[in-house]
Specification:
Elements lengths: L2 E2 L6 E2 L3 H25 L6 H6 L6 H12 L2 H14 L1 H27 L4 H5 L6 H33 L5 H21 L2 H29 L4 H10 L20 H17 L2 H8 L4 H32 L2 H7 L6 H9 L4 H39 L10 H23 L13
Antiparallel strand pairs: 1-2
């Protein structure tokens, strides 16, 4: 069972017996990841190779990398918790996120035909002039900075839960430490280097979620209906668990709010700046279409496993306990990993470590990809607009400085607003 920290008065997800082994393995994994990143870092000053890998990524490889872009730490740790706490509303969010890549599949061939890879450059096809490019860069920054803040905050909360210190101070410290590590990674990364990390993340994440799901199903004698019934019984509202409106943020505006949520998630996610770079890295239009097809299949499987993991967390752990650990449910995956192998200490340590490592990979790659895409936009659309053309040597330098500046600003903003919750856990009346 989950133990309690006397000092903090909050649940301890792992327990003192397993914490040392989990944290040691986690730190070793972080070190290996950073070593791999620096090994993959390119010293090439050619902007085309830095931004879009010389448009040479194989279709299947790029498809795996696109799927990896969807496996962010917010999705990985928050969405199962939202499903465990709020049932239908969380599932609809997962379905919307999966549909977004399908929408992008329709847009990708047109984007690849233009050979442009920033929003500013795409906007300039309709209205030329530096003002259009600047507007595209501003839009990119307005999208990227909040995304970076959410990813960094989720990574810090997950790390604090992992070490058994889910206090606000510990979360801020973990956020700062994770942010510094990720800034080092993002500062040397390019599209080809991040692609290898994204590709490696996909099978690890899918295998980990599949293992947790199967172990949870085993507790219910491989009967999905029994698992779902248990999830409803242990939810905050058994009668409303599979009905819309249990999640507070979607309950006040009625149908209009629900429709707007669907539109924002589907259309907003479909035009993320880092996805534009991924499409531009394809060899040609057919390769871009094939890459998106691979990514859609892998992403669909990922969200299916994620939905099952959310229901399993509610059935095995219970919504009350998940909400007591973290109001937004971000401890659900680790709690579930801790409970499904409760009587097998070694297997439990391995499973918790896998979840923690996948979460670190998710925050590492998500922040690096979004930061890199935003820095490319700043370099080409803000600094390099008409009248301020950069030379081949200056452009990579501006790119690296933009990456570090974006990470630093996002980290400062994240720590400044950390005390303000993004959502609340409340029992339905």
């Amino acid at each position: 069972m989950t133990t309690y920290l006397l000092s903090a008065g909050s649940p301890d997800l792992i327990g003192s017996a397993a914490r040392a082994a989990v944290i040691s393995a986690f730190l070793v994994f972080i070190g290996l990841c950073l070593l791999w990143v620096f090994t993959l870092a390119t010293q090439d000053d050619d902007p085309e190779r830095l931004y879009v890998a010389d448009r040479s990524l194989p279709p299947v490889f790029n498809g795996f990398a696109m799927a990896g872009e969807q496996i962010t730490v917010v999705v990985l740790v928050s969405l199962p918790g939202v499903i465990a706490l709020f049932g239908y509303d969380g599932v609809s969010t997962a379905v919307d996120s999966a549909l977004a890549l399908g929408v992008f599949l329709l847009l990708a061939p047109r984007i690849r035909e233009t050979r442009r890879y920033t929003l500013g450059e795409l906007f300039s096809l309709r209205a030329e002039g530096p003002g259009t490019r600047i507007a595209g860069a501003v839009v990119t920054l307005c999208v990227a900075v909040p995304l970076l803040m959410v990813q960094l905050r989720a990574g810090g909360i997950t790390a604090a839960l992992l070490i058994g210190m889910p206090t606000e101070t510990a979360q801020v410290v973990c956020t700062v430490l994770m942010g510094c590590l990720i800034t080092c990674f993002a500062g040397v990364a390019d599209l080809r280097g991040t692609s290898f990390i994204q590709v490696a993340k996909v099978p690890v994440a899918l295998a980990t979620l599949a293992a947790i799901t199967l172990l949870a199903l085993r507790r219910f004698r491989w009967d999905p209906e029994s698992l779902l019934s248990a999830a409803m019984d242990k939810s905050v509202s058994p009668h409303g668990y599979l009905s819309p409106g249990l999640w507070a943020h979607s309950a006040h505006l009625g149908p209009l709010g629900t429709v707007s949520d669907h539109i924002v998630v589907i259309l907003g996610t479909a035009m993320m700046p880092h996805l534009l770079l991924r499409v531009s890295a394809s060899r040609d239009v057919p390769a871009a279409r094939r890459s998106l097809s691979v990514a859609v299949g892998l992403t669909g499987l990922f969200y299916l496993l994620l939905i099952t993991t959310g229901f399993a967390a509610a059935a095995v752990v219970g919504s009350d306990q998940i909400g007591a650990v973290d109001a937004k449910g971000q401890g659900a995956p680790i709690l579930l990993a801790s409970e499904v192998l409760q009587h097998h200490p070694n297997g439990r340590v391995v499973l918790i470590t896998l979840v923690a490592c996948v979460a670190f990979l998710a925050v590492l790659t998500a922040v690096a990809s979004v930061t890199f895409a935003a820095a490319v936009s700043v370099t080409r659309d803000l600094v390099g607009h008409k009248g301020r053309t950069l030379t081949g040597i200056e452009e990579p330098v501006v790119l690296r400085l933009s990456v570090v500046a974006l990470c630093a600003v996002s980290l400062l903003l994240t720590t400044a607003v950390h005390r303000y919750p993004s959502s609340s856990f409340s029992r339905s009346p």
